[in-house]
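Q: What changes when iron/sulfur cluster is included in the input?
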Amino acid sequence: MRILLVQPAPFECGRIGLENALWMSEPGALTAIAACVEDEHEVRIIDMRLEEADVLPRVLASFKPDLVGVTCMTTDAYQAQAVLHCAKSILGEQVFTLLGGHHPTLVPGEHDYEYIDAICIGEGEDTFTELVAHLAGGGDPNDLHAIDGLAFRSGDAQIQTSKRSQARELDTFPAPARHLLDAYKGQYFFASAINMAAIQTSRGCAFDCNFCAIWEFYEKKVRFLSSKAIADRMEECEEPFIFFLDDNFLTRPKRLEELCDEIERRNIKKYWMIQGRTDFVVENPELMKRMRDCGLMMVLSGFETNDAGTLESLKKDNTRENNLKAAKLLNDLSIITTGIFMAHPDFEAQDFEDLYAAINEMKITIPLVVIHMPLPGTQSWRENKDSLLTEDARFFDLLHAVVPTKLPRREFYERYAAWNESTEASIDSSLSMRFMARRPRLMMAMRPGMKLFGERREVLRKALNDPENYLRDEDEIIGELPIAAQRASESVARETEGVTV
Amino acid sequence: MSTILIEKEEPVIEAEETEMELSPWLAELRDEVAAHPGVNHLLLSRLRTGRYTKGDYRVFGLQHYPMVGTFTRYMELLLLRAPSSEQKLWLAKVLVDEYGEGSDGEDHASLYLKYLYSMGVEPGEEESTPLCTAVWEFIGNHLRICREEPFLVGLGALGPGHEWAIPKMFHKIIPGLERAGMSYDDRLYFDLHTEQDIDHANWMSEALEQLGQDDEARAQVRRGALLSLGARFRFWTGIERCVVARRQPHSVDAVRRGLLGRRRPDREESPGNRQELFQAIQDNWSGKDWPVRLPSDSELLEVSQ
Ligand code: B12
Ligand code: SF4
Ligand SMILES: [Fe+2]
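A: The predicted holo structure follows.
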């Protein structure tokens, strides 16, 4: 079978966002599922974030895939659908269209369209392997009941097959087929770390923050790749930089010690970046130092807030003191900190000021302020559904307020858009001469990417700093009334109309 | 279990196509047209799956509108070059229809204006809005094809390149217009073209069957179709950039500077509005050069290779 896997561009082609200016990660979902079938089938991957729009129709027409698979998080929803729509439009009914990823897993009902043949719910490897085998063996594309982990249309309703078990040991999955991304070599990056690979070393998270669906997606279980397998994959990467995709890399100190052992034993010279919690950093200073010596260059953490009460309400199970201490510790170790902070829709003017001041005090190298929102599938979503001002998937990018703001919207965005300029001091004081002098080799490695990142950052800043950018996005889409209230009043109106008729 | 974020959309009812039987070479060409990136530009699928508003469609429409008045111009140019009166007759049949016969006195341009005004365009705005380079290019290319290329290349551009392509493209546009709240009456221009152009396509096919007797003739027809669709592809890309720029003007700057992936750097400022465009068409008629650099044939053909 010929299989085409597509990473959609978020939003329209040519729109700048964090994803193409700060962090462009390789499509790890696609290389993971491709690896399961590539021995027996011809598989290609295209990354539409890096391509001109003609590439998709051109490849569809020339490669003539039997199956097109697309990955999708919430913000990509309509673009992912467009890819599958385009596939059906060019190839007709004979192409099988498949959607997978976080968004369709959490809300499959939103992808119930005639141009989508099936949705992969949850982890993809086994479901995809079985589906491909079924289709390649001449199985009926409409009779998928025997394959676990799928949703598809049967008669008038979308049905789901049995849940796919997510218990398989990560080491038993084939290594992602990264060679299918050869055409994009050198194009993935995090800030100045250009030419970056990505490896997922664990799945799931043991915490249960109410704004995050990771623990629900992985059913509160956590599985790990062995240190040996991680080191094998690191060695296979030609790229000097590696991003570990785990949502929470910093758990189980023993596993990390073992990883350091492997890196040291094999003398692996890579710079790597991770996502992890500040409490772990504070509790394991020696381990952090050891990881730094093994190549750890950046830790991305959800600091979330400067306020203890809010940490509690987010069920973050962490403290403000940990955040402060972790930032200091990482700075002292010359490990870049990327700190995500949340502006809340109920912020007043002073709250913004306080947040920016706190960031500057913490000396975060790369601060990012996002807007707190209930992401589909999270606990917070279920609790706040009635206050949603929009259900338009594009707005769930953490850069828009999808529930009513306490301040007038214009003022809210004016104050929010100031975060970039207002936290400049944080960057400057973190990236001190001392910080850089301690890691001359890392600085050298990042040098080739600095100019391009500088330019990208400049255009991104223009966009982020402009409150009109957010307001223009909302124009005609986000009103003052929550969707639920709008629907209720419409239905009352309809009923009243019914009575008068 | 699923929360329905998005309202269910009615499946589009594909217009009943009663296209005539084609000989193998034409059937092959029709399939090639149907799969061409110009007809399947991602923007069209995005209009179908995305959540564009009237304001977005206004931007789209203001750029698209100039194309409406120019199709007849291409036909007139081609008519002059038709080698026999039999061929002139086929072309004239389509042309009369395009002038608006059978549409209750409303020609395409006035139908389109109705659509624009229903989205809140102020009278006059359709003349004064700066048009993106892609619009100028598209029109310039077609004027050139109809004037300079062999007759059959022109026929390929206007027949398969337009009449076969338009119903398929408009089918994708209509559901989005509907979702944005446009009534059947307001968007009649589009609906009409999914129906009427099937007749046009059939007339054209008849002509092509007769004229495409040898390989050379067939290659000319195909070349015309591909040139037109190549220009069409670039046109949709230009429109998409305009739609993005309305809400996110800074992004256009990033694309222009080639900072996002491999996207081709964007082209320069608008060469002018519709009034200026129509002046340029007149001037071009009397021998003046087209004021915008036109993509080369190979740039246009490369879109589908
Ligand atoms: C890298 C990354 C990014 C990258 C780009 C993502 C990419 N596709 O390359 C960047 C930095 C741009 C990014 C941005 C954002 N991200 Co992000 N990101 C991630 C991260 C850390 C890793 C993604 C990855 O490669 N995973 C590895 C693969 C193997 O896992 P997977 O994607 O889940 O794929 C498996 C299954 O889902 C399934 N599958 C997936 N796709 C398909 C397709 C088919 C056909 C099949 C059969 C199966 C299948 O099979 C795979 C193998 O089992 C994830 C966290 C995570 N755990 O995945 C968050 C995550 C995807 N991001 C998330 C969010 C919220 C965002 C942002 C909105 C906010 C933010 N500030 O981060 C922005 C939005 C960007 C935008 N468009 O506006 C959420 C998504 C939630 C949701 N509802 O969609 C996640 C899950 C993090 C979280 N904690 O909740 N992100
Ligand atoms: S936010 Fe981080 S710590 Fe909290 S559940 Fe999600 S991945 Fe785990
Ligand atoms: Fe027509």
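Observations recorded in class: The first helix of chain B runs from residue 24 to 34.
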